[in-house]
Amino acid sequence: MFEGLSPLARDARSWPFEQARALLARILRLRLSDAERDLASTLINSGKADEAVKTFPALAKPVILETGYGPSGLPHLGTFGEVARTTMVRNAFRALVDDAIPTRLIAFSDDMDGLRKVPDNIENKQPLIEDLGKPLTVVRDPFGTHDSFGAHNNARLRAFLDGFGFEYEFVSSTQCYKGGLFDETLLTALARFDAIQKVMLPTLGEERRASYSPFLPISPLSGKVLQVPTLERNVEKGTIVFQDEDGSKVEVPVTGGHVKMQWKPDWAMRWTALGVDYEMSGKDLIDSVKASAQICKALGGVPPEGFNYELFLDENSQKISKSKGNGLSMEDWLRYGAPESLSYYMFQSPKSAKKLYFDVIPKATDEYLQQLDAYPRQEAAKQLDNPVWHVHSGRPPQYGSPVSFSLMLNLVSAANASDKEILWGFLSRYIPGATPESQPLLDRLAGYAINYYDDFVKPTKAFRAPDDKERAAIVDLLGRLKALPSDCQDAELIQNEVFAVGKDHEFEPLRAWFQALYEVLLGQSQGPRFGSFAAIFGLDRTTALIEEKLG
Length: 551
Description:
Helix content: 40-55%
Distance between the termini: 60 Å
Strand order of the largest sheet: 1-2-3
Number of strands: 12
Number of helices: 26
């Protein structure tokens, strides 16, 4: 699917390709000698990446991209955004090397972390209260459906990612610790304990520094993840000694799941043990990335490539907080907009702070549809920078929607539509032969539009009477529309008449005329092209609506 795209990918300007080129440079730098790198670069740049892989077996090792998830709660918009954006980088990399170098995307669950707080949105809190401090994969499942709370949320994560069609590999922290995958790196961390402390202690307050250890032992007594000092280290035996909750000194190995690392050292240890080549993170974790990168180097690893994306803001430009509830949830967006529109929004300017509230959904949806409509007409080089190439993993659908989301909203408003059948009565007449089956995206948009109208537009509709100038213009428009054939569906012809009326009645600026139309006829201050609306709604219904509002 990605073969033959490398000549275009080398010059593509969109941010996933910029990241992909940096990732490729890392792979060549770390896996090959200088002389080998020059030859491999020449082969790859000439479209012979498959030959480069055959010549240098080191390139056949998969490139690993990682995203992280804390299963103390359910997946959310941030989870989606990180996986979606990392997938975009992965696909750009695959295009850059003609899919000759294998890749893996790991969705890593930090499910051995101790449960620190009982989530507010869970009814059966008692098991969680009793199991506070224990690893999430030990905490009992309050829903009674899985072996543990961590397993429950991991299952939700996988269902969440599967529902969006992401290609990924799920990796459990608990399985890595207990299964021995981390053992070698954990022993290295024990041997280089002081180097890790040298990185971490300056980042901590005085009280925390006094008791901080990168190792969090699992208490044999209570099963809790303990934040206690390391009293002794035995590098040869691979053990540490700590004081358990009853005051006794306990010696445990750092391997086999007997300890977990603090999260910044854990992040670095994971990068090292799994050989992670790429991981992105939010701007709020810049300092954490720097600390983990230093620890990764101390462990003998190489920190991954990646970048820090900006965080989302609410409508008042305040940072979105799950505890404040001042942002959109996944369920919110998917009630009012298509998953494709959400992916499009995630693609756009990831390093710029953007507002994430309900009003962005119609705009993001229509921008996505515009890009999808433009894609088939673009030359191949432009297609790779079109957001829909990234939204659809290089395979955008052949057809989009012949009707914009904003136009659909106005249609819902004018028709007072309560279900999709009403809308399809207009759409099937405007688009001969169109059915929900032949136009699945349009059908989905109809459902989203009804939901959005019911929840946001309808409660705020505010009709007003026209002033004398506006009334004269609307009466003029009514006469011109009645002069057209009653079955006219020529959106451009109707739009030209509307435009001419605004000019003839000297509205300045001209958009004041269109705003007046929307406020008088639809009870809102803006909308799509009026000609398109009238063509779909029907000229007879449009003139009847005008007469009704004129009184």
